[in-house]
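assembly run, all chains below
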Amino acid sequence: MPSIEASEATAPRVTLSSLDTLWFQVAGTVCNLACTHCFISCSPTNRTHEFLSLEAILPYLEEAATLGVKELYFTGGEPFLNPEMESILEQALQVGPVTVLTNGLLLDPERCRRLNQLADQGDYSLDFRVSLDGYAPETNDPIRGEGTFDRILQGVSNLVEAGLNPVITVTEVYEDNGSVSGKERFFGLLRDLGVAKPRLKMLPVFQIGAEAERSGAYDSWQRLRDRDTLDEGWGHLQCSSCRMVTDQGVWVCPILVNEPRGKMGQTLSDTLEPFPLEHPACWTCHVYGVSCKT
Amino acid sequence: MSAAENNKLTAHRGKATWGERLVPLERFREETAVAGRRLSEAARLVEQGNFLRRERGATPVEGPYSRVVVFGGVYNNHLALEAVLDAAHKHGAEAVYCLGDLGGFGPSPEKVWPLLLEGDVRTLQGNYEESLASGREDCNCGYTDPRDNHFATLSYRYTSEHCSSDFKRWMGGLPLQRRIRVGQRELLLVHGSPRQINEFLFHSTSPISFLEVLLDQESCDGLLCTHTGLQWHRRLPSGRDVVNVGVIGRPANDGQPGVWYAMLEDRDGDLGVELLRLEYDHTTLALEMQQQNLPQEFIDTIRHGWWTTCLEILPARERARSRY
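ok done. output:
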């Protein structure tokens, strides 16, 4: 059951080649949903990580600019639970392009109009990713919660109505989700909703957090070993070009924030050293070629 | 709300999730407080310096020139290639550079080769040349949309089957970067970005601080790239320039059949950058594509100027301006 068995000595280490992507756990682990596949078990009462304030974020934005950051991502929990979220977006968009990962439930028409105004200002893209786990309530709602399918689609509609075109993010909780016909069904669903230019991203599930309860934790063989070191290096892994800021400091990636050993330092400059790929979730990223980026 | 959900919500009160376990919140916080490094201010500056430093490559600097024409993404479009070489001649350009991606999309790939040789076009290797020269099965775009993948594969296979092995070998010998001097300015020429042949540098996702760091690392006064298919120019606060020269192989997703290239010139020590629209005989190209049984979707793009496939790579801002 413990997630980390392999010692640092045997795990391959990945170098941060550049800080392309900076993540903010802007809502901590606090969410208005409690999805059964959430790899960090977010819920209304999960205070493992708390909200990030605008004041806490500003120094990180400045440091990230010095380090040549290319894009900024905001996640949680549910980012729009953070009361400062729109001011945070406004500041972040001064530094670079921004993507927000949301469950879509707090996207009322008025907020969507304001977000679209933000998206039209300035030089950089503002993008949204809305999570959906099935193309019908029967498949989505058991994962994301009763009645969420309709509410998510309402949020997507509100975004589209306001002139925004979110990427729909689907996890492969059902094998069929990622198949060609599965993808076609999601595209069809979005077109029926009036989304003229549907966008879709598939993600594998990480067998940690709530998902470990739902479908089982990793087996002990699901680890990266030194001998797995590739000739071409680990550039395909997101952690070779990203870091994650939470209210408790800077972590290697968005996946491992509920592992204290995933924390690398207090400022970004503390975290520029290599990281050992000792966690079984690292195995998922490697095997599935996961990029958390859009 | 289901009983299971209720349990989980209750379970979190005063607890933290540590992997798949629940532990008292204080225990997680204590563990986290001492995890990782906490460097001194001085040590942080040293770390930043080491992290940002890059060795400058040994690429020789060509020129100096007072005027050059630079384009990318030929995509088998031999008619646009002829037109851009004519334009370069009329501008009095002293040299012509192509930033790669010779194949894909258009008809009869072999036709562009003699034009490049006779026109003395100094060409870089793009990801398409890299794939073709190394015998890769597809262009490796990795689209999510099955439709995008379908069309990407079609055009790659067509190009691969219609390229001679001599042409492919020539592609494999092309350099990945060049440096040129225009007036006082030393410019780095790449396909995608200085660090990755297939990195997308779009206007809305290439922030100023990122570009400044990139140019510092490469110690150059300007960067020219292509690969995205969309042209743009950004003058940085440091006074340096980044130019995506666009592509001549297909329109810039703007509803016009014309394509884009760049002219750079010395203006009394300053760098003049012009992105120029190129009109060419797109009607004939569309007919040739029809004769080669290329997909109607590609032909529509050549005629009407809107991209119909492989739109997935576009950032939100660029996608919003797109028809499809």
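Chain A touches chain B through 72 residues (CB under 8 Å).

Confidence is low (pLDDT under 50) at residues 1-7 of chain A.

not gonna interpret more than that til we talk
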